[in-house]
Amino acid sequence: MSAQATALNLVMLGPPGAGKGTQAERFAHRYGVPKISTGDILREAVAAETELGVAAKQVMDAGRLVGDDIMIGIVAERLSRKDAAAGFVLDGFPRTVRQAEALDAMPDAQPLIVVDIVVPEATLVQRLATRRTCARCGYSALPAADACPKCGGELVVRVDDSAGVVRERLRVYHEQTAPIVEFYRGRPTFAAIDGTGTPDDVHAAICTAVAAAAGERA
Predict the structure, then answer these.
(1) Is 187 one of the catalytic residues?
(2) For residue 161, how many C-alpha atoms fall within 13 Å in the half-sphere facing its CB?
């Protein structure tokens, strides 16, 4: 795929350990579009003390989860920025059907392509049990790495990557995400990708699926 004649607006779905964040970053880099992580833009809004950021901080300081209205507003503002005009990769949004419906109504998010990275639970548990995360920037790295390939920080084992905690996280993920997958599944711009291959294989499959969804030849 060459220059962006049509915006590549991609939603990346996948359970913990599927490699969603890494694949989102690779795709964004390849096509020159921003990777938009809801965690990142939420922290940015809080730090900038925007109206939505102040509201989000109040919710988080009270120990509650940030609700749909605030997240929808923050994402809508981010997608309206100039750097997202040629496309984007959304990582971590939508998390609810209401958020998915709101995304459909955002003019800056159309046309929308959705990719779901599918990996068996046993494989996910094994991956997460051996995963190392950078203590400085949060990047997930392969177990064999000596230091973070992004910033050189120390790699540590996350407390919530133990087998029991992982299975509970996966249960919650599937419970919350299954309705979102079903919301998108019937669309011609939805693709389920086998995430058990090498990172290069998965990346190639995602690019092929996106090209097909965009009506272009891979």
Answers:
(1) no
(2) 15
Confidence grade of residue 217 (pLDDT, cut at 50, 70, 90): very low
Q: Confirm whether 173 is domain-assigned.
A: yes
Give the C-alpha separation, 64 to 151, whole Å.
Answer: 32
Residue 26 main-chain phi, psi, to 5 deg:
-65, -45
Which pTM does this prediction carry? 0.79
Q: Which of 83, 53, 82 is nearest to 70 (CA)?
A: 53
**Number of domains, the chain:** 1
Q: What residues make up the domain containing 103?
A: 8-213
Domain at 129, CATH number: 3.40.50.300
Active-site choice (26, 78, 131, 132): 131
Contact by Cβ (8 Å): 120, 196: yes
Of the candidates 64, 95, 150, 187, the residue annotated as catalytic is 95
95 is catalytic: yes
Q: Specify if 1 maps to a domain.
A: no
Residue 131 known to be catalytic: yes
Q: In this structure, are residues 120 and 114 in contact, taking their beta carbons and an 8 Å threshold? A: no
Q: Is 167 a catalytic residue?
A: no
pLDDT recorded at residue 4: 42
98 pLDDT above the threshold of 90? yes
The residue assigned the tokens 């030849």 is 217
What pLDDT digit, counting tens, does each position of 121-131 carry?
A: 888 888 777 77
